[in-house]
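Quick illustration for those who missed Monday's session on complexes.
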Amino acid sequence: MLEKFGRNLPCWCGSGRKYKACHMAFDERIAQARAAGHIVPGHKLIKNDAQIAKIRESCVVNMAALDAVAAAIRPGMTTKEIDDIVYGTTTAMGGIPAPLNYHGFPYSVCTSVNEQVCHGFPSDQVVLKEGDIINVDCSTILDGYFSDSSRMFCIGEVSPEKKRLVEVTKECVELGLEQVKPWGFLGDVGQAVHDHARANGYSVVPDIGGHGVGLEFHEDPFVSYVTRRGEEMLLAPGMIFTIEPMVNMGGAAHVTNRANGWEISTRDGLPSAQWEIMVLVTEEGHEVLCW
Ligand code: MF3
Ligand code: CO
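Prediction with cobalt (II) ion bound:
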């Protein structure tokens, strides 16, 4: 079967190298895993070095936009000002904010405050005040390549309970990241995230999660954080996906704003936090591309 690719013909990944010296052993390993019943990544989820280099450039812009927000964010600022900063920084660097007009999303960034879980609309009516926590979720298209990451910000003095939620959620991402290695499983990441959140008395939103990213905004696989070790998709070098759990202080249930169909908040009104990083699976382990 493998012969049909031609051992001496160029590899499917676009590297320009011969198949036998590039992804032939990789394909054999994938075939074994599939035969053993695992979910395996298709070729289109495997990025080559040239693509990774372009995605990296997109990540530089995305992080610059978040850095600009970090430098400016303060009590009294509106979330619309955050939108302006992200739009201005991204476009000045030659990028396009990926959320803008994405399935009709009307802003350049998602700003989700306190009980908002995700997809919050920037607004000149939302003034950040001392004690708020906010997720700023930034995504960039540069030369057609996508990046996506988000950070939490504490506005002034925040209650110890909210501060702990923000810190534990970051730890969840770090613990998930530690699990990312070639020939591991996406479920290893999910279980590490879930275990840490639950050990701290929090819940993880089960039905909104991470995703492959790079050549498109949202690619396969869907990355859930309530999955189990040894399950879900096999991880292979060249895959890029986000780790972005939404961790709630109370219950996992959430409601969608019916007026705009986008903004998602916790049903119980308790705070929610999220951090998002973009990670590349490498031959040796992993590399964080965007945070
Ligand atoms: N940045 C979000 C994510 O992490 C996507 C938001 S879709 C948007 O996947 F349209 F709201 F931007
Ligand atoms: Co994302």
